[in-house]
Specification:
- This protein is of the alpha/beta class.
- It folds into three domains: about 1-20 and about 260-335, no CATH class; about 20-245, Rossmann fold (3-Layer(aba) Sandwich), CATH 3.40.50.1460; about 345-400, no CATH class.
- It contains 15 helices and 14 strands.
- It has helices spanning about 1-20, 45-60, 70-85, 120-125, 130-140, 155-160, 205-210, 220-235, 260-280, 285-295, 300-310, 345-355, 370-385, 395-400, 425-440; strands spanning about 25-30, 60-65, 90-95, 100, 105-110, 125, 140-145, 170, 180-185, 240-245, 415-420, 425, 465-470, 475-480.
- Strands 2-1-3-7-9-10 form a six-stranded mixed sheet, with helices on both faces. It has a four-stranded antiparallel sheet with strand order 6-5-4-8. A two-stranded antiparallel sheet has the order 11-12.
- β13 (about 465-470) and β14 form a beta hairpin.
- The longest helix is centred in the first third of the chain and has 18 residues, at about 1-20.
- The radius of gyration is 38 Å and the shape is flat.
Length: about 475
């Protein structure tokens, strides 16, 4: 199963570049709040959500749409979206309505929010971070479009209610940090306000509708077009802004495939690219996957022969020459990786060091790109939920690994060892370290010295002396102790 997943990852990366293919499992959440009860309503938000939802359905998205949602309805829509994200290739969230930032965090404002006190922040509005977390955890690529930085009197009321802490309520939305495979488009710059349009849609929604269905325009080009159109339409008063961590191009509508010589050439290139990926894999499942996709492909005969040899003998046969039936031998070009100014050896060495940093390979001192490095990169892609080719070191793979600051691959310890603060240590030593740490955390108890208990000895009363009459001079007598 893991071998098939690795082949699928690198194949998708190659086909994306060669033919503009797209992931086919797409889920979208589209929210538009216009009829606010306690603040200024928004005239165009209702039209924006209808038009964006219709466009996304034409782009093969499963759309969950909501209009004028109160707090409970908005949370229910987010919950439904989270359930639908399981196994999604592309997740998209579009929101138009009021929003605000508090302590540097962004919140979406339901239609019934009042925000009359600081406590209402926790109970009346919905965190944007909650939605982003669901998307980044489940989907391979996440697209977010926020047309939400409108003038909002509720923010001013909240700032007044918070008193000296009211400075923590900012204008517009705050900058958002994203995980890998995510792009966030804001209708205006962080801390700024956006404007509604004079027509049916807002300035940002109108520009998005103008470009989102253009064939052959990837998401990066779409964001560029949004910035240009909105900036021009508002005479520079509104400047859309975005943050992206995508490692490859995503096309919401690819170029149409036509039955021409050029179209056939693209199919042939995809066939060659796929065969290049599996021909040296020595994997029965990988070769069969090629046959399932191209049963009449140029290399179908070679694939069947290779499968037969693998079935008869465990060792893989020598690599056959490539020949298309009825034609001269075809030289299969090897895809050239984008090295971004690196030479292949330096790029491989740098990528290995980065894979070691995120815990996917140990002792990466060899500069060559071997099976160990390919396996490490495949493991990184699996745990990071990104699509990167693993056959050869590429600039896209290096950038994807460098974007991660934390450990990505789980630590594997030998028998008798356990994970202790990111290092493998003997289990007995780990128990001692835990015991020492526990003792250091306990408050020191004052030592109490017990005094020895001395037995109480009752002393007998002194004996009374025996008295005798004593004959004194001149015949006097007196009483005195007897002398024996």
């Amino acid at each position: 199963m893991r071998g098939q997943w690795a082949i699928c990852v690198v194949f998708l990366a190659a086909v994306y570049a060669a033919s503009g293919a797209l992931a086919d499992n797409r889920v979208a959440l589209v929210i538009g709040n216009a009829a606010y009860v306690n603040t200024v309503p928004l005239a165009s938000a209702s039209h924006d959500v209808d038009d964006i939802a219709a466009a996304l359905r034409r782009l093969s998205f499963q759309v969950i749409a909501g209009k004028d949602l109160d707090k409970r309805s908005l949370e229910r829509a987010v919950r439904q979206f989270a359930v639908g994200l399981t196994g999604a290739d592309v997740a998209l969230f579009y929101y138009v309505g009021h929003s605000l930032q508090v302590r540097g965090l962004n919140y979406l404002v339901p239609t019934d929010a009042k925000l009359s006190s600081e406590d209402d922040v926790d109970f009346e509005i919905v965190s944007l971070g909650l939605i982003l977390k669901q998307m980044e955890r489940e989907a391979k690529a996440s697209l977010v479009f926020l047309d939400a930085s409108r003038h909002n009197p509720l923010g001013r009321n909240l700032a007044q209610a918070m008193g000296p802490r009211g400075t923590q309520v900012g204008q517009g939305l705050a900058e958002v940090r994203t995980a890998g495979g995510t792009v966030i488009g804001f209708s205006t710059q962080p801390g700024s306000l956006s404007f509604e349009g004079p027509g049916r849609n807002s300035r940002y929604a109108a520009a998005l509708l103008e470009h989102i269905e253009v064939p052959g325009k990837d998401v990066a080009a779409l964001l560029d077009a949004l910035r240009t159109d909105v900036h021009k339409a508002t005479d520079g008063r509104q400047q859309p802004w975005d943050r992206t961590s995508l490692s490859g191009a995503i096309f919401l509508r690819p170029e149409p495939r036509v039955a021409t010589a050029q179209g056939k050439d693209l199919d042939r290139q995809a066939d060659i690219a796929y065969w290049n990926l599996v021909r040296t894999s020595k994997s029965h499942s990988a070769l069969q996957a090629y046959l399932d996709r191209y049963p009449s492909g140029a290399f179908a005969g070679l694939a069947r022969t290779a499968i037969a040899d693998l079935t008869a003998k465990p060792a893989a046969p020598a690599e056959p020459s490539v020949k298309v039936a009825g034609s001269e031998p075809v030289a299969v070009p090897k895809p050239k990786a984008n090295l971004g100014g690196y030479d292949a050896q330096a790029l491989g060495k740098t990528l290995r060091k980065e894979l070691e940093r995120v815990g996917c390979i140990a002792g990466a001192t060899d500069a060559t790109w071997d099976d160990e490095a390919r396996h490490a990169l495949s493991q990184f892609a699996l745990h990071a939920k990104v699509v990167v080719p693993a056959d050869e070191p590429t600039l896209a793979a290096l950038q994807a690994v460098q974007a991660r600051k934390e450990r990505m691959c789980p630590l594997k310890c030998s028998k008798g060892e356990t994970d202790k603060d990111g290092q493998c240590v003997a289990e007995a030593r780990a128990r001692r370290l835990s015991l020492i740490t526990s003792e250091k955390r306990q408050p020191e108890r004052a030592s109490v010295r017990r005094q020895p208990v001395r037995p109480v000895v009752e002393e007998a009363p002194p004996a009374k002396p025996e008295l005798c009459w004593n004959q004194g001079p001149r015949g006097t007598q007196s009483v005195a102790p007897c002398v024996r």
